[in-house]
Every structure is written in structure tokens, then in C-alpha cells.
């Protein structure tokens, strides 16, 4: 018999907080550079345009590691009823 396990309402917030405390990301730009690629880390919106231009001019592939604010959430898309079945509202 299958059991349904309910997650607490703040499950994702708790998970995100714990993950931030326990894990740190590697320097992805440095890893890209170690493979001969163009790699840069973007820490602010002021850096984006110049960094993307340099990446596009690179003769090799490029990896841009964009640091974002972990407390901000992307908006959840609202799917109108019936759209999942191919119907249009």
C-alpha cells in the first residue's frame, strides 16, 4: 500500500536555507578556464553587458557564472485551466 508523506509548508524554504549553509558552489568560471574556455563570474547587473560581449568575442566556448540573490524567487507561472490538455482558454 502506498503511503502519502506530506511535506511541511515551508519545505523548500527550509531546504534552500540548509543547502546554503552546507554547500558552496565551485568557481565555475575557473573550471571553464581550466578546460581552455572563456570563463567569467558576473556578480552585479552592471557587469552583464560587458561580460556577455567578451564571451561572444571569445574564439572558444564561454561559460558565464552569474551570481544571483538566493532569496529571490522566480515568479511561478500560472497555467489556466485546460491548457495542459491542449485546450485554449
Automatic annotation (TrEMBL):
InterPro entries: THDP-binding, TPP_enzyme_TPP-bd
Domain Thiamine pyrophosphate enzyme TPP-binding intervals: 17-66
Gene Ontology MF annotations: catalytic activity; magnesium ion binding; thiamine pyrophosphate binding
Entries under SUPFAM superfamilies matching the protein: Thiamin diphosphate-binding fold (THDP-binding)
Protein name, UniProt field: Thiamine pyrophosphate-dependent acetolactate synthase large subunit-like protein
Amino acid at each position: 500500500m502506498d503511503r502519502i508523506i506530506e511535506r511541511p509548508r515551508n519545505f523548500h524554504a527550509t531546504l534552500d536555507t540548509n543547502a546554503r549553509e552546507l554547500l558552496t558552489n565551485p568557481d565555475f568560471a575557473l573550471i571553464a578556464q581550466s578546460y581552455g574556455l572563456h570563463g567569467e563570474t558576473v556578480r552585479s547587473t552592471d557587469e552583464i553587458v560587458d561580460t556577455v560581449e567578451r564571451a561572444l568575442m571569445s574564439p572558444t566556448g564561454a561559460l558565464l557564472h552569474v551570481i544571483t540573490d538566493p532569496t529571490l524567487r522566480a515568479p511561478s507561472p500560472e497555467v489556466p485551466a485546460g491548457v495542459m490538455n491542449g485546450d485554449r482558454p
